[in-house]
Amino acid sequence: MKFLKVFRKRILFLWLIVGLMLIAFGGSCLLQINRLPPILKVSPGQRIKISAYFPLSFYTIHQHLQKDIPSRYARSLPLLANNLIVNSPAYEKFDVQVRLLGAIPVKRLHVEIAQPAMVVPGGQAIGVLFSSKGMVIIGHLSLKGLDQHIYYPAKDADIRIGDVLLAMDDMPVNRVDEVEYQLRNYQPKRKFIKLTILRRGKQITTKIRPVYCGQNGTIPRYMLGIYIEDPAAGVGTLTCYDPVSQRFAGLGHRIAEFAGKKGIPFNQGEIVLAKINGVRVGIPGQPGEKIGIFNSLLNPLGKIEKNSRFGIYGHLYGMDYRNAETPIAAAYHSEVTVGPAQIYTVIRGTKIEHFNVEIIKVYRQDAPRDKGMVIKVVDPLLLKLTGGIIQGMSGSPIIQHGKFIGAVTHVLVNDPTKGYGVLAEWMIQEMYGIAS
């Protein structure tokens, strides 16, 4: 009996060991399968190696996949290997099967060899405007008339938060004092003032009846019951543009709301060129920023048509290409590697300068995500001038091996020498997703 008990314990122990080995075996397989991307985009002529380890292997018949056997065999036999090298000179698509123990299909890898988009890298400092004209309505105000009644003239006129006030009685208004001037000259016998408003890209007109009141003991005057603000949303960087279609990309991240005002989504706007007059140096715990100026009444550079988590996108109205960079290829995420790179940005005036950075981590992304890489500023001049990555650098293009690989998006608050970048592949998808 004692012998049987010992024997059973040993059998149970062996089964436990086998079970743990099977769990480890299965876990290793799942990790490998999840690590392999479902779609792999490659530029023509780009050479890229993909690997799988026992018990997984690749299976396909394709002339531009190679393994460690003479190519004449690889081109005529089904290919079963652990290491494959994609190397094709022309556009094509094909599938690679991932197999377990060389027999059981567990995943399909789609390989697409395609010409990359050719874009001009930016770096220009830009002012981002909710509108290039008028004043943004950021709130409503109830008014107590001299008759002690409460009035809501803006709501009664269907004026909404986020509307842009363009004109009063056909007179353009671009400053607060111009609105006040129109109200001072209001004649009560006319009853209403005609307002021209921009709402979601469409121009509309409405009528509003000003209320004569004295708010909080002030001298009585006519008021509209609205809060208004300058349409400037801030300073950023133009990332790239297509000189043929005139599409552009900028910032690298979403503008969540107009100037931080809740309830005013940034769903319209324009960009203008900006001038950097100064810099507040970043320190750990306190990000720095570019101090820029721009005139919202100048001719806008382009129209914003999309505001997504990968930046702002739209069409340029026209650019001076005499000093523009030569178009370069936008890299697929499979081409981005750890190592040296450059960012293009403006720190002084309007001059675009190139600064050295190091890509210290690249995240494998099978689907669009905003944080695709971690970068570290290593350029002594940029570190001296800014302390690293600062606000206003968002959208600065990142160049590696002569290709556009992404854009600066965020700074690490506790270490301003480091920050995140979005991959160029996702920005290009967004840019070409807008209508021609």
Write the layout of secondary structure elements.
Elements: H1 2-35, E1 39-42, E2 47-51, E3 56-60, E4 65-66, H2 71-74, E5 79-81, E6 83-87, E7 92-100, E8 104-113, E9 118-121, E10 125-129, E11 135-140, E12 143-144, E13 150-151, H3 153-156, E14 164-168, E15 171-172, H4 176-184, E16 193-199, E17 202-208, E18 211-213, E19 221-223, E20 226-229, E21 232-241, E22 247-250, E23 270-273, E24 275-280, E25 289-293, E26 302-308, E27 311-316, E28 328-329, E29 339-346, E30 352-362, E31 373-377, H5 380-386, E32 397-400, E33 403-412, E34 415-423, H6 424-431
Structural class: alpha+beta
* Uncertain stretches: 66-78
Number of structurally distinct domains: 3
> Which strand order do you get reading across the main beta sheet?
10-21-22-27-26-23
Spatial shape: elongated
Report how far the terminal alpha carbons are from each other: 85 Å
Compute the number of strand runs: 34
Give a short account of the largest sheet.
6 strands, antiparallel, barrel
What percentage of the residues does DSSP assign to strands (E)?
A: 35-45%
User: What's the quaternary structure here?
Assistant: single chain
